[in-house]
Design brief:
Layout lengths: L2 H18 L10 H4 L10 H27 L7 H24 L4 H27 L9
Helix pairs in contact: 1-3, 1-5, 4-5
Length: 142
Amino acid sequence: MRPLTAWMRAVGVLYLVLGATWFPGIAERMLDSRIPGFDAPADGVAARGYTDWMFGFGIDLFVIGVFLIAASRRPERASVLVWLVIALSATRGIGLDLYHISMGYPVVSMVAFIALHTAIIASGVWALRAQERAPATAGETA
């Protein structure tokens, strides 16, 4: 399996799993770990509004995961999708995690996600470069 195919499938599965954790029924059970000290009632309007709003984020992650896995069949045609994921990991990932740290969220979990985003970015760029250097095989087009 070529590096870009493997990267797209691995990151795709990761996005499916992370996206699913924001789905209703799961997100509510994780509220305390995501926002330590959340002081609104778990069945109240604030908690419900937060989980409903973040459901959209979960859908975004899930859809990106589906597209990464589907596009991994023809990775030579998916470089724009890979660059999108890399850009989102840099901005929505690392940038937002740094913002969360500045707002007082738990540093350890934010640093763990910064490390994850950094790994996604670095391995994605490496896989793209490897794809560019690799000779085309039967069925692939430039």
